[in-house]
Amino acid sequence: MLIGASPEWALEVKMFRPNGDNGKPDDTAIKDILSPFASDRSALTDCAKLAESSIAPSHATLICGFDDARRPLQAMMEAFETLARTRVRLGVRHEAPLRELVHPVHRSGAVFGWEVTRREVPNG
Fold first, then answer.
1. Does residue 46 form part of some domain?
2. Partner of 51 for a Cys bridge, out of 33, 59, 88, 112, CB 3.0 to 4.6 A?
3. Concatenated DSSP letters of the chain
């Protein structure tokens, strides 16, 4: 997603949905966020792609996630941040809660966002 006339921001957006619409666990949910393989097009690989991009001067990644007691949303975001910081410079986490959603399975969650920049590698 590009924002601004120039554009000013390039964003990649992913969804963490630990359950399908039927309430059964979605076994691909973790892969969509944490996979290190470019062919999986995960949030993790999106970060590296954004950091190297020249499409806009600023880059960010957004994850829209839903709550589930078996796969807690906060734990997934902490795992994402830990892995992403090995590849890029991840800015401060911004978070907006989603409450009282009308979907029968996905009732609450949050949207998370981070600015993404190239990770500085020390000379050595």
1. yes
2. 88
3. -EETTTT-EEEEEEEE-SB-TTSSB-TTHHHHHH---GGG--HHHHHHHHHH--SSSEEEEEEEEE--SSS-HHHHHHHHHHHHTTTEEE---EEEEE-S--SSS---EEEEEEEEEEPPPPP-
